[in-house]
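Researcher: I'm preparing a figure for a lab meeting and need a structural model of a single chain. I don't have an experimental structure, so a prediction will have to do for now. The sequence is pasted below. Please return the structure as tokens so I can convert it later.
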Amino acid sequence: MKRRLLARTGPAAMAVIAAVIAACSGRPPQRPEPPPPPVVVEPPKPRFADPVATLRFEIDPEQDDVVGTVQVTVASKTDTLPDIARRFNVGYEEIVRANPKVDPWLPGAGREIVVPTRFVLPNAPRDGIVINLAAMRIYYFPAKLVKGKRVPRTAGEKQVVYTHPIGIGKIGWNTPEGRTTIIAREKDPTWRPSAAVRKEHADNDDPIPAVVGPGPDNPLGKFKFTLGWPSYLIHGTNKPYGVGLRSSHGCIRLYPEDIEAFFRMVPVGTPVHVVNQPYLFGWHDGQLYLQPLNVLEDDRRDWKRAQRKLLQKTISPRIEQALKAQGLAIDWDVVARQAHEARGLPLSVTRGDTRAEDAIAAAPRVENRVPTGSNWDGADDPSRAAQPAVARAGQG
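Model: Understood. Here is the structure written out token by token.
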């Protein structure tokens, strides 16, 4: 009977009975052991792909006008958009244009950042250096050399192109358009600012000397190319965060790591073509793409009233032939909408109503770091200063 009663008793009652028996026997009651703590399962951290270096491409010169890929990364607590821009080899205006609702200086930890590393090549001769002022971007198409002599490419042969962001002349100090050549190269240059430049600095209570030798205070950086246009240069900078801005007196500025790479490969005599193309049409995978950029403030063309007429002039005869051969037509309503949004992302204008949000949604999510294969080693990346030495040790 006693056993049957105990068998029907619940755990709580059993605990009370045990306490009564212990009290009657003179032993202190034993507390029941607490239940084990609940197992906390943390949600898996999102997995990000390796970032892609987008500075060198091989293209079919008769088929490819679009290179690179849009990427999306996540800002850290200490990041600014210029920090992320340099890691991914884009300029200030490029990354701000692609992220119109993001504070450039306080994007916020965990904020997704669109990295606009897909480009439509300018409509210009693919020979030597091509600079698109509206894109604030430089392209280099090395010549094919055989025994030191330039030779034409065979049909179907791939062509290499390198591209980097640049700083250009500010309003009133425009970078000229047209064709010139590189007439000289120099390492550790000396800067001799013009009288007009010195006067401007003096008027702004920022006097500068007549001669600035090589070193960290030299605005030309460590390398320069002299152009056939008097007083205009392609050079580095001692202020990398001016790249991607209208910040010079007409010269073209590159990140220090990019001008060093160019200095190793670009010879004297290289042709230079400077264009101003804020809307770029390009052919890729049987579709026509438009990359809409911002029109420079001092561009005198009437893009508001004569946009379609001006845009039609920017389409190359090769692209017109490709459209006709495939029976495709440009959707000018889509063109107008994309031109108005101008986020700088190449989007199809023959595939229907494509939007920037579609390209961003399809873009790979990548780690927020300097991509393998980049010119920059990230040595002076501000984010590294905020990391413990142990964490930095594994970074290259």
